[in-house]
């Protein structure tokens, strides 16, 4: 049975839907999906998207209301800026449509909880694109942990860097990402993806302490010249979103966990460090690393180092594989999403390797982020499960 997709946010220019969703869907052999509708800010923009993306049989609309009243779509895919998620997702749910939404689900916890509750009341299938769970190295780490390959997990630490949200802002960096009111910042997006990957592999926090700090409130605007060198423009850009996120606590498994992710311009010592995630067990260690902070869209390497029965270190095994971290992860997401029945509320996936993140699963991540913010403000230990 074919599922007809209606896309909101697939443009003729650059868009995440065009970079990831569309290529991922086109990788699926004998695909159960067909893109039957495209919505953009204007009808003309939708027509341009149809032409650019070679969607010959696709309907075009200038508003979601027109799509819902006139279009032929079973599932609505929402891939637009975070402040608009609630409006489009809510409208689609009220119309009884299944929905796939980009992360974050809502602009804050309240919107996410409202959308998840509405989806359940409408008995529709929903998914949120937290696609780091679909990266082969992260799935491999989960398999190794669950098989006991490194014994009992006793601790984990995740250290991540990004040049974004730092003391410098590139001219091309979207202004809305630097304003807390928009819900699209370092904590909400990349930290949310990385925390979800950690939870997928190791489980949730029993409790946590968080520190969220904005060290750079007025950033220096830079442009990149043809040689790749950064040049000051003399302008400043205000930023009220965090550039330092620290989380420490105890996982439900009993393992200790520490996470530190920061927006900071890299030096020669840190330029090759996107993230390094260490998982320490009683019989060895697993290390995942990447040159980018973004576990959901950049290639990750994975290594394991085991101990013999006497505690001697065995040679490091490189378990890395070549994969497409953008279209490939999306392909797997859509394949797993298709396995659940349409027009039927999907229960939380409980970290299944072949599952997908539902609205209910996304709410857990929103609650975790809210707990980090509460802890940072109060200085107290917080829970979210």
From TrEMBL:
SUPFAM superfamilies: Glyceraldehyde-3-phosphate dehydrogenase-like, C-terminal domain (SSF55347), NAD(P)-binding Rossmann-fold domains (SSF51735). It comes from the Eukaryota. Pfam families: Gal80p_C-like (PF22685), GFO_IDH_MocA (PF01408). GO terms for molecular function: nucleotide binding. Gene3D superfamilies: Dihydrodipicolinate Reductase, domain 2 (3.30.360.10), NAD(P)-binding Rossmann-like Domain (3.40.50.720). Residues 136-289 form the Gal80p-like C-terminal domain. Residues 13-128 form the Gfo/Idh/MocA-like oxidoreductase N-terminal domain. InterPro entries: Gal80p-like_C, Gfo/Idh/MocA-like_OxRdtase_N, Gfo/Idh/MocA_oxidoreduct, NAD(P)-bd_dom_sf. Signal peptide: none annotated. This is Gfo/Idh/MocA-like oxidoreductase N-terminal domain-containing protein. The lineage of its organism: Eukaryota, Fungi, Fungi incertae sedis, Mucoromycota, Mucoromycotina.
């Amino acid at each position: 049975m074919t599922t007809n997709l209606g896309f909101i946010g697939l443009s003729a220019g650059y868009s995440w839907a065009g970079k990831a969703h569309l290529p991922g869907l086109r990788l699926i052999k004998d695909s159960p999906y067909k893109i039957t509708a495209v919505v953009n800010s204007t009808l003309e923009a939708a027509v341009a998207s149809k032409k650019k993306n070679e969607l010959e049989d696709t309907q075009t609309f200038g508003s979601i209301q027109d799509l819902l009243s006139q279009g032929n779509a079973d599932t609505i895919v929402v891939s637009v800026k975070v402040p608009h998620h609630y409006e489009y997702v809510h409208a689609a749910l009220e119309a009884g449509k299944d929905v796939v939404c980009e992360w974050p689900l809502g602009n804050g916890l309240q919107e996410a909880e409202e959308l998840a509750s509405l989806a359940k009341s409408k008995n529709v299938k929903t998914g949120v694109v937290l696609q780091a769970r679909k990266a082969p190295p992260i799935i491999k780490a989960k398999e190794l942990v669950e098989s006991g390959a490194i014994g009992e997990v006793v601790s984990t630490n995740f250290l991540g860097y990004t040049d974004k949200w730092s003391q410098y802002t590139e001219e091309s960096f979207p202004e809305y990402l630097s304003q807390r009111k928009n819900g699209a910042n370092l904590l909400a997006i990349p930290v949310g993806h990385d925390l979800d990957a950690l939870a997928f592999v190791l489980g949730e926090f029993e409790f946590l302490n968080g520190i969220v700090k904005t060290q750079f409130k007025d950033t220096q605007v830079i442009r990149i010249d043809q040689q790749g060198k950064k040049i000051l423009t003399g302008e400043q850009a205000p930023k009220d979103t965090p550039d330092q996120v620290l989380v420490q606590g105890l996982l439900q498994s009993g393992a200790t966990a520490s996470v530190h992710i920061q927006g900071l311009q890299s030096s020669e010592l840190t330029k090759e460090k996107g993230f390094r995630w260490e998982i320490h067990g009683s019989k060895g260690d697993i290390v995942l690393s990447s040159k980018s902070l973004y576990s959901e869209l950049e290639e990750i390497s994975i290594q394991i180092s085991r101990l013999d029965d006497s505690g001697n270190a065995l040679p490091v095994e490189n378990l890395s594989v070549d994969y497409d971290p953008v279209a490939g992860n999306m392909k797997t997401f859509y394949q797993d999403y298709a396995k659940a029945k349409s027009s039927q509320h999907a229960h939380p996936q409980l970290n299944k390797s072949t599952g997908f993140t539902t609205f209910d699963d996304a709410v857990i991540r929103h609650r975790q982020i809210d707990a980090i913010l509460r802890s940072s403000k109060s200085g107290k230990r917080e829970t979210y499960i």
